[in-house]
Specification:
Layout lengths: L67 E2 L5 E2 L4 H8 L1 H9 L5 E2 L7 E2 L2 H4 L24
Antiparallel strand pairs: 1-2, 3-4
Length: 144
């Protein structure tokens, strides 16, 4: 029995310029090296996401380059990347679906759109960079 998949209206993924569609460079008949290695063309991507245990093809499909894949091999579109992320980040996915994590646009009486995980988190390095505080503004009385 196939599990029912509920589609959620999402904003388009924030693709890297000149990197999508992947099929513009990768073909269906390309020989794929499945052993983790440095990929010269993608040298701007720094993997800081469980990098001791993960590699590109753990999420990206080796044969269908314009798709991601779940742990069981099923293909998922980049517009459904939350399904991929949710395999490891289940509580966050649940909170995202409930509106407790992430951002939604729209109002109660209109179509709502959810932002995908990569809209806020770089999937290759998802932790937010530290924020540095600024000096407090001067009070008007202190300005002369």
């Amino acid at each position: 029995m196939k599990a029912k998949v509920t589609l959620i209206a999402v904003a388009p993924p924030p693709f890297s310029p000149d990197m999508f569609p992947c099929s513009a460079c990768h073909g269906l008949t390309d020989k794929v090296n499945r052993v983790p290695h440095k990929v010269d063309f993608h040298d701007t991507i720094v993997l800081k996401h469980d990098e001791k245990n993960r590699w590109c093809l753990d999420c990206h499909s080796a044969q269908h380059r314009d798709s991601l894949h779940l742990a069981d091999g099923r293909l998922v579109a980049f517009t459904e990347s939350y399904r991929l992320c949710g395999q490891c980040h289940g509580p966050t996915l649940r909170n995202w679906k409930a509106g407790e994590h992430g951002k939604r646009t729209g109002s109660w009486s209109s179509t709502k759109q959810y932002l995908l995980c990569p809209s806020c988190h770089n999937p290759h390095s998802p932790h937010f960079k530290p924020l540095h505080g600024r000096e407090a503004p001067l009070r008007q009385e202190a300005i002369k």
